[in-house]
Amino acid sequence: MTTAVKDFVTNTIKRDEIDRYLIGGKDFIDDTLIHAQIAAGARPEKSRVRGIIAKALSIQRLDPEETAALLNVEDEELWEEMTRAAGDIKRKVYDNRIVTFAPLYCSNLCVNNCLYCGFRVDNIHERRRTLTLDEVRKEAEMVCKIGHKRLIMVYGEHPSSGADYIADTIEAVYDVKAPVRNGIAQIRRANINAAPMSVVDLKKLWKAGIGTYQVFQETYHHKRYSEVHPSGVKADYQWRLYALHRALDAGIDDVAIGALFGLYDWRFEVMGMVYHAIDLEDRFGIGPHTISFPRLNPAEGMDLNNKSPYMVSDADFRKLVIVLRLSIPYSGMIITARESAGMRRKIIPLGCTQTDASTRIGIGAYSDAAEEQESDRQQFMLGDTRSLDDVVREFAGMGLITSFCTAGYRCGRTGDKIMKLLKSGVEGKFCKLNAVLTYKEWIDDFASDKTREAAEAIIQKELEQIKADPFYKNKKLLTTFDDYLGRIINGERDLYI
Ligand code: SAM
Ligand code: SF4
């Protein structure tokens, strides 16, 4: 380890930026209590479970004891009811929309040693690289040409990819203007998945125009966390646990949580996420904008997935998605290309709102147009590498409209404002119009003939629903919408309500 790296590991954590959030010296995850709550939830009464489902259907976040009861359900009939409720909640809050994005990996140098990750410092097989800003722009241009408007930018934790670098890369991708069929395409929202930072550093990201800030706790269980994060900055559980608290204090008002399923008992992780949402809500009035639930995938030099006693079966994966959908009903839910196409098809109807497509996670892999995945320059191996065009067409076949909308963020509908709008169903009404506008843009700029046919059929259905919905007449939105749609058909771009 060079001196610069050693200094980085020593100096990154600001103890007072953890201590200020602790209560009585403790964080909000009480491992013993969570285990006790899961045990106490065993064999829940049918009537109680139905009451909990009804609460979730009214878009109220569940209490930990209620989540514990759902996690313990064994009755098949109740699981069917919970499955239906999960889909209903998704439609109530987010309608039939699904948002797509592309990950853009900027660096794979990392001072940490997470046992599950190909980027960890001890993996000598990894080809290490931090993209220059020109290379980042090139990657973003390639992603724009596929048709994506949203990125999740991903970084290892290393002095070469600190806050200043991240801020520069955010500004770089917003600069990109890529020529496409009918004009110019741009990245309209850059979300970030990066290591926890200090408030001072987080303010730099906010100034650069960060979208959502995503930090996964990986596992909420303290002891297991220490086992799988043996060294580096990431060895500090609480520095990570309060990463999003600091972000909200720094002015970033869209934050996203997640756990890496397969590291510890999946029921415990679901409870951990509920506690995380509660603490954010209690302190800031803002819950997580999205929830991620990646499962451990094979990675170069990593054999944890053969050894971990906690790998999650497909059947349990389905259950955890349903319980998360019911427990935190207002949050978006992200399923990624870590999962196979078949699995995504089964899980999306349970309440997912976002997914990636045309995904490349090798550093610089969009520009190289690499056909095959390369284990020595990516974090883990993907389960689904289908193109955005194929995925949009599949969604259309499932009755889903792919939304490329980023309007909410650009009109200030973020943070606590979007939370209220989501809970009341009003945000969904604006989103429906913007989904149609951005979908039409995408079809005209990018769709193959086959996809265009399926997608135009979805647009017709959406237009019928919009025309019949009294909400739009009352709000006099229809006139503006019709005008914008006409202008988009004539080649104008980036019109939103
Ligand atoms: N280095 C930053 C950090 O750890 O916070 C950025 C995140 S990392 C590049 C993105 C996420 O990928 C991690 O938070 C972890 O949950 C997930 N991940 C790591 N290894 C994985 C694997 N083998 N399979 C699936 N997901 C993995
Ligand atoms: Fe580094 Fe993040 Fe991978 Fe851990 S998960 S080794 S912190 S890139």
Characterise the protein shown here.
There is one protein chain. The protein is of the alpha/beta class and 497 residues long. The chain has three domains: 3-23 and 97-414, Alpha-Beta Barrel (TIM Barrel), CATH 3.20.20.70; 31-86, no CATH class; 421-489. The chain is built from 24 helices and eleven strands. An eight-stranded parallel barrel has the order 1-2-5-6-7-8-9-10, surrounded by five helices. A hairpin with a 2-residue loop joins strand 3 (178-180) and strand 4. Helix 4 (46-57) runs parallel beside helix 6 (76-94) and helix 21 packs parallel to helix 24. It is globular, with a radius of gyration of 22 Å. The protein starts with a helix and ends in an 8-residue tail after the last helix. The structure holds S-adenosylmethionine (SAM) and iron/sulfur cluster (SF4). S-adenosylmethionine binds at residues 116-117, 154-157, 193-195, 215-216, 218, 260, 294, 296-297, 299, 338, 379-380. Iron/sulfur cluster is lined by residues 110, 112, 114, 117, 119-120, 156-157, 234.
Question: What is this entry, summarized?
Answer:
Helix content is 50%, strand content 9%. With 497 residues, it is an alpha/beta fold.
Number of strands: 11
The CATH class of the largest domain is identified as: Alpha Beta
Main beta-sheet strand count, sense and barrel state? 8 strands, parallel, barrel
Strand content: 5-15%
Structural class category: alpha/beta
Shape: globular
> What is the CATH third-level topology name of the largest domain?
TIM Barrel
CATH 4th-level superfamily of the largest domain = Aldolase class I
Q: Give the number of helices.
A: 24
Helix content: 40-55%
Strand order of the largest sheet: 1-2-5-6-7-8-9-10
Number of domains: 3
Unreliable runs = none
Question: Compounds present?
Answer: S-adenosylmethionine, iron/sulfur cluster
